[in-house]
Specification:
alpha/beta; Quinone Oxidoreductase, Chain A, domain 1; Rossmann fold; 6-stranded parallel β-sheet; 8 helices; 22% helix
Length: 347
């Protein structure tokens, strides 16, 4: 192997487990290693990729803890963290991938990654759409919104839909899907800028700043005097408690995430769970990877809507792999507006 094929490879490495409290940028560090731009001799069904865009997602907070019995493994201190991203194949010993192919899926937070389990990847066929969309709208976040709203909540035209963390990567899409179906949609977020986006850019019927509401139950009664049919749950905690008081009979709750709880040592108690009995509410947690077999069906639905400009998608773009720790931490203090992603390279 010629020396000139040895290149520098910057990596985002977890320094130590962060079991409680808000993670800090100093819990991660940028390290530089070298990598040969070739799959090692004798390694079958592997691909070497150049990472282009990385996706910052709330579930990554839990992977910074030492986890037992989790659907997704902990990050390893001293090793690069991993997550969803968009990448270009540089070398391949896998029959389904060739040099130059564009893919999205699980990759390392580094400039180049050797992927020995490319089953976690999707080949990008629609290259006429922005590649960054595959970190969100056309990737995991889009599939999460689609799965939770359509598959879990089985929505009907005219229903009352509430979305928390509504300006985030998933929430902004749930609201727009609900509007396309003819539902009444209200979202909540944590700043005036985000509320303006929800109402003026994403077409929500109403939106409110949860930080300005001393009584969340009263706020929901104001926006949903007849109650909520569908709640897309992203935050948990006090918001979930208030929603449970306001669900309609046969309401559905898709539990996507609970970002308000991720930094707590012990989760907050949920006090109003008993209301799901008389109201016959169905509440279901889900993991999007269980539904990836529906990805072609999702693309069939969403791509025409994107091309007809019926769906708007806002991205918050951080430049350079060095900015990745700051971008990831920003998710947990509401710094991002829209889908947070990191540009590692543009080609």
């Amino acid at each position: 192997m010629a020396d000139e094929a040895l290149v520098k490879n910057k990596q985002v490495v977890l320094k130590n487990y962060v079991n409680a409290g808000l993670p800090k940028e100093s819990d991660m560090e940028i390290k530089e290693k070298s990598i040969q731009l070739k799959v090692p001799e004798g390694t079958k069904d592997a691909i070497l990729v150049k990472n282009l865009y990385l996706s910052c997602d709330p579930y990554m907070r839990n992977r910074m803890k030492k986890l037992e019995d989790s659907y997704v493994p902990s990050f390893e201190p001293g090793s690069p963290i991993s997550g969803y991203g968009v990448a270009k194949v540089v070398d391949s010993t896998h029959p389904e991938y060739k040099n130059g192919d564009l893919v999205w899926g699980t990759t390392g937070w580094e400039e180049y990654s050797l992927l020995t389990a490319p089953g976690l990847l999707f080949k990008i066929q629609h290259t006429d759409l922005p590649l960054t969309y595959y970190t969100g709208l056309l990737g995991m976040a889009g599939m999460t919104a689609y799965t939770g709203f359509y598959e879990i909540c089985t929505p009907k035209k005219g229903e009352y839909v509430y979305v928390s963390a509504a300006s985030g990567a998933v929430g902004q899409l749930v609201g727009q899907f609900a509007k396309l179906l003819g539902c009444y949609v209200v979202g909540s977020a944590g700043s005036k800028e985000k509320i303006d986006l929800l109402k003026n850019k994403f077409g929500f019927d109403e939106a409110f700043n949860y930080k300005e509401e001393p009584d969340l139950d009263a706020a929901l009664k104001r926006y949903f005097p007849e109650g909520i049919d569908i709640y897309f749950e992203n935050v948990g905690g006090k918001m979930l408690d208030a929603v449970l008081l306001n669900m309609r009979v046969h309401g559905r709750i898709a539990v996507c995430g609970m970002i308000s709880q991720y930094n707590n040592d012990k989760p907050e108690a949920t006090h109003n769970l008993m209301y799901i009995i008389p109201k016959r509410v169905r509440m279901q947690g889900f993991i999007v990877s269980d539904f990836y077999h529906l990805y072609p069906k999702y693309l069939e639905m969403v791509i025409p809507s994107i091309k007809e400009e019926k769906i708007t998608y806002i991205e918050d773009v951080a430049e350079g792999i060095e900015s990745a720790p700051t971008a990831l931490i920003g998710l947990f203090i509401g710094r991002n507006v829209g889908k947070q992603l990191v540009v590692v390279a543009r080609d």
